[in-house]
Amino acid sequence: MNVLSAVLLLSGALFCVLGAVGMLRLPDVPSRLQAATKPQTLGLLLILVGTALRLPPSYAVGLALVALFQMLTAPVLSQFLGRAAYRTGAVDESTLLCDDLKSVRDNDAESGSASPGA
Amino acid sequence: MISTFVWLVVVWLMLWGSADLGLVLLGAVVAAGVLLLYPLPPVRSRVLRRPHRLVGLGLFLVADLVISGIRVAWDAARYGRKVRAAVIAVPVLSDEDYVIATAANLLSLGPGKFVLQLDRRERVFYVYALGVRSAAEVDRARADVLGLQRRVIKAFGEPG
Amino acid sequence: MSVVFTITFGLLVLAGMLTLVRLVRGPRTLDRVLAVDVLVVLIACGVAVEMAQSGRAMNIALLLAITLLGFLGSIGAVRLIEGRKDQR
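The joint structure predicted for all components is written out below.
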């Protein structure tokens, strides 16, 4: 039990570090969003499981609630942030292999909403 | 409505970490208050209709979370500033709001992808995918998104 | 086991310091919002590890408050940025 818990805690913290490295190295907001928040969420989940293993079982319920909230809120935030990044032109277009949304976006630009890259 | 009420009471009890009669009653009052203050549109939900599919979806998500977590971290460490991404248009397979919303959220939970925009009328997801370096990988990312949608539909979507 | 906790805390602090660099450098406000959100999750991780170490579960409510407030704060900040005219 202790060994499993130790492995979970360590790998969780490791994912947090990997996320932070991605946060530093990647070139634009959406790629940082991917590399930072996602491994971070995974890291928190691993750490929560590792913590639950070391506490009396009745506390596992509360920790499960924390994990559930994190899993519900993380995707919402990443969609909000990602969309805001795209609309404010924070996407580095040189990183994009293809952009299927570009034609749609150009139509939007005429109606006066976001016009990134201008 | 009833299921939302029960769910809120359960969350309340989880918050306190215990369950005696007083707490259940207090939780019922709070849940009723929340439902009255913040009414939600009724959603026909069949989340629990096929539990085995739901468990399968859960296991798939855990595996996906770990595998793509490692892949994204590797991409970030290896390519750094030279990382490549793509914005891909993927058809939406379902016509039910909560299936689409669930698929979009599960997609955005896993590392590597998130839904940038949803065109509900044209039924298109615009998905940002990180670590895509060739046309073949664009196709694979698109296939992944379609596969996840099929799993969600199988778990609690309308058959057909 | 105490070595494990030391290493875990060390890794979390390292992650926090790397994230602080991004917070300072920016360049966009969105980068900073992202960095703050990551810091909040790291703090939650730290609180959880502390609970594992001490064996006391008093901080579960704190953990819930941190994660939920972090989420609400980030959403608010993103909405503010998106609504701004100068888009920077």
